[in-house]
Structure formats: structure tokens, C-alpha cells
Design a protein that fits this description.
single chain, 5-stranded mixed beta sheet, 19 strands, alpha+beta
């Protein structure tokens, strides 16, 4: 998977080990394909007046269109970026270009200049004193009532009031679902867009944004073309099960109650999650995927513990126009302990510590499964525990990418296959990379379609996959 090793930083006498990045890992950090392409255009020595490193930080000056060059700096322990250019993208093309240049032609060692050292010092200071980052969309845009949490009794009353509103919204959802089934699903394609939007809006009004999102997604299932009927029926059945669960909420186990709260979109207190017993690493990064969801930029980052295959999901949110925090690079090995959110399956987690993720080789990792049947069995087991699961992490070796009848798929050594979630351009790119050879594929899937976020061939070559942060 990843064979480059980290190296110790000399910054401020630190013994911190920072990773060494390969080109695919750097390109996977790009906020969009255009930024990745522009960064590659800046990965040439002629574009930079100078560039250097102290082991932890990488910096350089790039001559732009103005008279003053852009000062670009990268904290390789993150990675984190800062640039004096006016771009609102993060990282900008200069940060990507500087890292790509350093990967191709390593920068010379030099003393840290003041403008870089001051930035690193401020980052370390903020890391030590900054309040906790938003853990859910609700926390990313807090309601006024969230300010007063000093009174436990008042907080409990607010939570009880919200649960009551959600329960009322769920009852209305139950009636809507019953009407949909009674009138038959064959007329769903003829329903106007407002049919789905109005039902979702009622759930938004009931402070159940998670359920509202699922209702809105029903319209996309119907519009997907062939095979929409079983998918729509499955989604409606899961929503019906959620209604049945909410009606018995008080009689359920705390873990199952947590499943229903997460399904509805109710936030869990970050402090309570961090107070639980952490699970130790190391954790291998499977890959990340960013998308706009409910007006927020949402990023999923999947981790897998090589020792036992335990999966974890890190979620980050950012309001429009604001950058997401830096994500660990695909294939990296994170030594952090993780604290898991409550639930029967417990996938979502928080990093208890913020150690740099190294780029260690995976030769010491136990072999990954090499059959799609193993992934299907794992999915079925996970779904039996949490029937509202939408996605899960995936790590398989020995898969070949192929194209048949205009569609892309992955095939294992037994000839078993599964659809590949990829656009035409993405599919051809992955097919060309594989060249008919078996690959190790890290990513996510929904029990039916595989989304490859990170691919490795037998020679150790890597590629950011379809639908990842560098599609």
C-alpha cells in the first residue's frame, strides 16, 4: 500500500515523526480536480523562487501575477497549509504544487524562517487552547439554546422537549409511509417533486434532519432508472422500522436509542464521547470522501485497525466557504486512540489524541480478505446489528477492475463481481491503472456497489480512487 517512511522533525527540537508523501497522496488532498491539475502545473522548479524544509515544515515563494511572490508553507505533520494567495480553496494550488515538487525533487534543508516559525508556533498554541471542533452538523451551526449548558436540569428539559418534537414528526412520517404503501409504489415516478420535499420539510420542522434527508433521498432512488422498485421498497421498509423503533423508544437499550438519535440527526455531546474508554490503534486510513450535504461540506474518513479489522469513521463538517480540517492521507497509519460514539455498531469515532499519521509500510498488517463474499458477509452482519446502516468501510485485495456492457465492476479470483461506483471518466482511469491486474482496494460500499477511494497494485503503485477527495 504505502511504502514511504516518515522522518523526525527538527523543528523546535521536536522528536515528532512526520510523514513523507507520494504524489497520489498529495493529489488526494486537493479540494477538487481543478485544484489538483493546477497544483501539478506548479510542481516545477522554475515556478518557485526558492523552497526549503526543516524536516517538519516545507515553505517556498512562488511568483504570481503581482509584484510580490506568494508565500506558501506546509506543516507536514498535518498536513496543514497556509498561503498568502487570495484563493479560498484549501489547500490552494500553491500548497499542492509545493508538496508535489518536494515529492519529486526534495527540498534542501534550511533554518526555519521567522514567518514560518511564527505560523507553526501559533498552530501549536491553538491546538493546546482551542475549543473542541464541531462534531455534528448541529454543532457546526449551533442553535442559540446550545449556549447555556451550565444548568443540567435545563439542558435535560430541552433534550426532552426535542425528543417530543421528533416523536411527533416520526408519527407523521408513519402515516405518510402507510399512505405510500396503501396507494402502491408503482405511481412513485409520477409523483411531483413537492411530494417528497413536503414530507421532508415536516421532519425538518420536527428537528429530525437525519430522517428528512432520508425522505428526500427517496426521490433520487425513483429517478435512478432500472431497479428503482426494490431500492425504494428497502428504503421505505427501513424508515418504517425507524417509526416502529421510536414508538418503543423508552423500552429500548441505550445503544439502540443512540442508533435512533443518530438516525434522526440528534447530536451527541462531544465531551461525553471523549469520556468513554478509548480503543487503541494503530489504524490504517482507507480513504476520504467529501461532499455537500444539507448545505454543509461533509467529509467521511474511513479507518481500519489491521489487528482485528475494526472499522471507524471520522466525520468533519464545515459551513459553506470554510475549509475542512486536514484529513490523514490515504494509506497512512495513525497511532491515535479513538473514542466511539454510542450505538449498537459504533462506527463513528473521535481521535482522542492528534498524533501525526505516519506513512509506514503495510507489510506487517495481516492479509486482507480477497473475496467479495467476505465483504457481503461483513455487510450482512453489520446490517443485522444496525438496520439503518447506509455505508461501511471496505478493504479487499485481489480485485480486478473490468468493464462490461458499458458499466464498470470489480471481480475477485472466484469470478464473483460487484458494480463499481464511478462515472465513465473515473471508471476508465481506474481501469487503465489496474491494467487487468489484481489490486488492493480500500474504500466504502453500501452492500451492493464498491466505491474505491485508494488503490494499490502488486508493484506498490498507488492511485486515489473514484469518488475520493481526488476523483
Amino acid at each position: 500500500m504505502v511504502h514511504a517512511a516518515g522522518h523526525p522533525s527538527r523543528h523546535a527540537g521536536s522528536l515528532l515523526t512526520v510523514p513523507s508523501y507520494k504524489r497520489p497522496q498529495i493529489l488526494a488532498l486537493a479540494p477538487d480536480p481543478a485544484s489538483a491539475k493546477a497544483g501539478e502545473g506548479l510542481a516545477r522548479r522554475a515556478k518557485w523562487l526558492h523552497y526549503a524544509t526543516d524536516g517538519r515544515a516545507l515553505w517556498g515563494e512562488c511568483q504570481g501575477s503581482g509584484s510580490t511572490p506568494y508565500r506558501t508553507q506546509v506543516d507536514l505533520a498535518g498536513p496543514a497549509f497556509r498561503c498568502s494567495c487570495p484563493s479560498r480553496k484549501f489547500p490552494c494550488k500553491h500548497g499542492l504544487g509545493l508538496m508535489l515538487l518536494h515529492a519529486d525533487v526534495p527540498a534542501a534543508s534550511a533554518e526555519t524562517p521567522d514567518w514560518v516559525g511564527e505560523w507553526l508556533a501559533k498552530r501549536e498554541s491553538r491546538a493546546a487552547t482551542a475549543p473542541a471542533a464541531p462534531a455534528t452538523p448541529a454543532e457546526a451551526a449551533p442553535a442559540p439554546a446550545a449556549k447555556a449548558t451550565a444548568d443540567p436540569e435545563a439542558a435535560a428539559k430541552r433534550a426532552e422537549k426535542r425528543l417530543a418534537r421528533v416523536s411527533a414528526g416520526v408519527e407523521a412520517l408513519g402515516l405518510w409511509l402507510a399512505d405510500a404503501v396503501r396507494t402502491g409504489l408503482d405511481g412513485a415516478p409520477q409523483q411531483p417533486p413537492g411530494h417528497w420535499r413536503e414530507a421532508a420539510a415536516r421532519l425538518d420542522d420536527a428537528q429530525a434532519p437525519g430522517l428528512a434527508r432520508r425522505v428526500r433521498s427517496l426521490a433520487a432512488l425513483v429517478a435512478a432508472g432500472d431497479g428503482w422498485e426494490p431500492r425504494l421498497l428497502d428504503a421505505i421498509a427501513r424508515l418504517h422500522l425507524a417509526v416502529a423503533g421510536w414508538r418503543r423508544y423508552g423500552a429500548l437499550s441505550p445503544a439502540r436509542q443512540a442508533d435512533l438519535r443518530a438516525l434522526a440527526g440528534l447530536p451527541e455531546a462531544r465531551e461525553a464521547v471523549l469520556a468513554t474508554a478509548p480503543e487503541p490503534g494503530p489504524w490504517r486510513v482507507l480513504g476520504s470522501r467529501s461532499e455537500i450535504e444539507d448545505g454543509l461540506c461533509t467529509r467521511r474518513c474511513w479507518l481500519r485497525r489491521p489487528a482485528d479489522g475494526r472499522l471507524a469513521l471520522l466525520l468533519d463538517f464545515a459551513p459553506p466557504g470554510q475549509p475542512l480540517p486536514a484529513a490523514p492521507a490515504p494509506g497512512a497509519l495513525c497511532v491515535d486512540a479513538l473514542a466511539f460514539y454510542p450505538g449498537t455498531l459504533a462506527r463513528r469515532a473521535l481521535r482522542v489524541t492528534s498524533e501525526a499519521c505516519g506513512q509506514g509500510a503495510d507489510s506487517a498488517d495481516p492479509p486482507l480478505p480477497d473475496r467479495l463474499d467476505a465483504a457481503r458477509a461483513a455487510w450482512a452482519g453489520a446490517l443485522a446489528v444496525n438496520p439503518w446502516l447506509e455505508l461501511d468501510g471496505l478493504a479487499l485485495r485481489g480485485l480486478t477492475i473490468e468493464q462490461q456492457h458499458g458499466r464498470f465492476r470489480v471481480r475477485d479470483a472466484d469470478g464473483d463481481h460487484a458494480p463499481l461506483a464511478a462515472t465513465a471518466n473515473e471508471g476508465w482511469r481506474l481501469l487503465a491503472f489496474g491494467g487487468g491486474r489484481p489490486l488492493t482496494i480500500l474504500g466504502e460500499w453500501d452492500g451492493e456497489r464498491v466505491r474505491a477511494l485508494w488503490l494499490t497494485d502488486a508493484d506498490g503503485r498507488t492511485l486515489a480512487g473514484a469518488g475520493g477527495d481526488d476523483p
